[in-house]
Amino acid sequence: MKSLFASFLFLLISISVSASCLPYGVSAFPKSNEISQNSILMVEGYAWSQKIIVELNKKYPIFLQSDNHKVKLTVKETCEGQFSLTQAILIIEDELIVGKKYVLQVENLTKEEREMHDFSAISWTVKNSVDTALPVWNKQPRHTENTFVMYGCGPDVYASFELEVADDSEVLVKTEVLDLKTNEKRIYYLQHYGGQLNIGHGMCAGAFNFGSDRNYKVRFDLVDASGNTLNKWTDWVQFESPFLT
């Protein structure tokens, strides 16, 4: 991920509990500085920035720019998290030029929005490659532990899963959580780190929120940075709310 704000990276992986929560932030996937010729993209907004994500290609046109080559991005899917995060999966609508550096651009931002969001800091160079290989589960997700830690502005609340994925590109884990009390479902694309996937939220933001008096179940699918997907959910895995830990 290429974070525009150092504190926003904290929000996603909870490295430092002493950082304060900014009221805005945007990040992007793939994390690498390079993309394949058939890549897909993901952009994610935190707090105030969520309204930009929701209005991409409505109020806010989004595209890639390399010199005079302007490439439209189409929003394939928008996922609203349960705690101050919203993401959009983007399809690149034209052929990218190998070796060129493309910068993410968003139009129609107000002066205040431009001051908060430097989209020109997000860029990728195009590799001379096309990835058509499907991602593979070497080890399907297994629930290992729940975590609840209270900090000054709120808790870190996570259900952690161990997994192992093999692919030629970076991979997003499409995650669907079902509340067994309300039957509410929510889907969000998560990144895994070091063989671990954390489902929940940090002190200031996260994809999923949990109640304190209920159980959940979750299932997963894989989508890589080139858009290759298994298009097949794993079996449901049930777990208790981390608030019950």
What is the element layout, followed by pairings?
Blueprint: H1 6-13, E1 24-29, E2 34-35, E3 40-47, H2 50-54, E4 62-66, E5 69-80, E6 85-92, E7 101-106, H3 111-116, E8 123-126, E9 136-150, E10 155-166, E11 171-179, E12 185-190, E13 196-201, E14 215-224, E15 237-240
Parallel strand pairs: 2-8
Antiparallel strand pairs: 1-3, 3-6, 4-5, 4-7, 5-6, 7-8, 9-10, 10-13, 11-12, 11-14, 14-15
Give the gist of this structure.
This protein is mostly beta strands and 245 residues long. It is built from 3 helices and 15 strands.
In this structure, how is the largest beta sheet organized?
Answer: 8 strands, mixed
Q: What share of the residues lie within helices? A: under 10%
Mean pLDDT: 91
How many separate helices? 3
Strand portion, in percent? over 45%
Uncertain segments are 1-19
Strand and helix order = HEEEHEEEEHEEEEEEEE
What is the terminal-to-terminal distance?
30 Å
Count of distinct strands: 15
Strand-pairing-aware structural class = mainly beta
Strand order of the largest sheet: 1-3-6-5-4-7-8-2
> Can you tell me the overall shape?
globular
The radius of gyration is 18 Å
